[in-house]
Write a structure and sequence with these properties.
Order of helices and strands: EHEEEEHEEEHH
Helix content: 10-25%
Oligomer: single chain
Strand content: 35-45%
Shape: globular
CATH topology: Hypothetical Protein Pfu-838710-001
Number of helices: 4
CATH class: Mainly Beta
Distance between the termini: 37 Å
Number of strands: 8
Strand order of the largest sheet: 1-5-4-3-2-6-7-8
Low-confidence stretches: none
CATH architecture: Beta Barrel
């Protein structure tokens, strides 16, 4: 069984409210608003940033997930394997965290954000749009598609590039919120 592949473009945004209006005019539908806290882990022997992977526990609206993100597969977009596993409760999340700490991993940082998710059918694809206000970092929008195979990556990427152009978005970044937070704190 292959793992889902996340195809994503992320843009810094000056005015999320105006962008939201534009998205609604295109037919986007609000899905939910949530508060998310992601705790990221690293290995002292293999720096996950250097090998371009991520391991985190996310808490959002009382639900928890363990997430692994594989190395980026594209030079211009974030295209990577993403494996998310739901955790049944806070005790399970704490057990996973203690397991990580027990094998020598360490907690790097916690990234907190407010996220509004919208959905838009665009160019034959069902696009998830995440408008994020990230504590200590700023405002961003992520345009995302999840595909089942690498053969679908190019079509997904083209659809997202077209949507970004329609919205007047430019300056896509591949830097994670964790990296931006650590840079702002002067830790990297």
């Amino acid at each position: 069984m292959s793992s889902p592949i996340e195809v994503e473009f992320k843009f810094p945004v000056d005015n999320l409210a105006k962008l939201r209006e534009n998205l609604l005019e295109l037919g986007a539908k609000p899905v939910k608003v949530s508060e998310q806290v992601d705790e990221y882990f690293n290995d002292p022997l293999r720096d996950f940033a250097k090998i371009d992977i991520a391991l985190r526990i996310r808490e959002s609206d009382g639900k928890l997930w363990l997430t692994f993100k594989g190395p980026n597969l594209d030079p211009s977009a974030k295209i990577r394997t993403e494996i998310e596993t739901p955790l049944v409760n806070q005790a399970a999340a704490e057990q996973i965290k203690q397991t990580f700490l027990g094998i020598g991993y360490f907690s790097v940082a916690r990234v907190a954000k407010s996220r509004e998710t919208l959905a838009l059918d665009w160019d034959g694809q069902h696009v998830e749009i995440c408008m994020d206000t990230v504590a200590e970092v700023g405002e961003f929008v992520e345009l995302e598609l999840v595909v089942d195979s690498t053969s679908q990556q190019d079509a997904a990427k083209q659809a997202l590039e077209g949507l970004a152009a329609k919205l007047g978005l430019s300056g896509s970044i591949r830097t994670s919120y964790l990296e931006l937070l650590l840079k702002n704190r002067g830790e990297i």
